[in-house]
Design brief:
Order of helices and strands: H
Largest sheet: none
Mean pLDDT: 87
Low-confidence stretches: none
Oligomer: single chain
Radius of gyration: 20 Å
Helix content: 55-70%
Shape: rod-shaped
Distance between the termini: 61 Å
Number of strands: 0
Length: 44
């Protein structure tokens, strides 16, 4: 077994990556919705 003091992880990089992922998904969802609205308006 590993020592508990050595098993402490620095999760700042993980949190930063996840925050970037959430921002990307948010903007991608908005872009897709706007594209679908545009298609509906031009009878695509």
């Amino acid at each position: 077994m590993t020592d508990t003091e050595n098993s402490q992880m620095d999760v700042r990089d993980h949190e930063k990556t996840f925050e970037g992922f959430v921002k990307f998904v948010t903007w991608a969802s908005i872009a897709i919705l706007l594209f679908l609205v545009f298609l509906a308006l031009v009878d695509g």
